[in-house]
Amino acid sequence: MKNPYSYRLALVDYARAHGIKAAARAFQTTVPTVRKWLRRYQAQGAKGLQALSRAPHRCPHKVGGEIEKPVLALRRHLPTFSAQRLRRDFGPGVFVFN
Fold this sequence. Notes:
58% of the residues lie in helices and 0% in strands. The chain is mainly alpha-helical.
């Protein structure tokens, strides 16, 4: 499967013409998978057949902008220190801004 979009479009076209179970058998996939792509196609059209990003929407442990620069400077100065050791040895109190 070199082009997933073309595969999904063919799957949806087949499902619309012959039914969901027949499409699942013909494309050797499951009924829920056929339903998923058919629903996306019905809701969004051809754009819905493109793959969605699996990247997280947010990163809860990411450091904010004002703390990031001093932490990166510390990491360059002490490259062998892990994140846990930096947190333990320096803690948040070391990053006070005037």
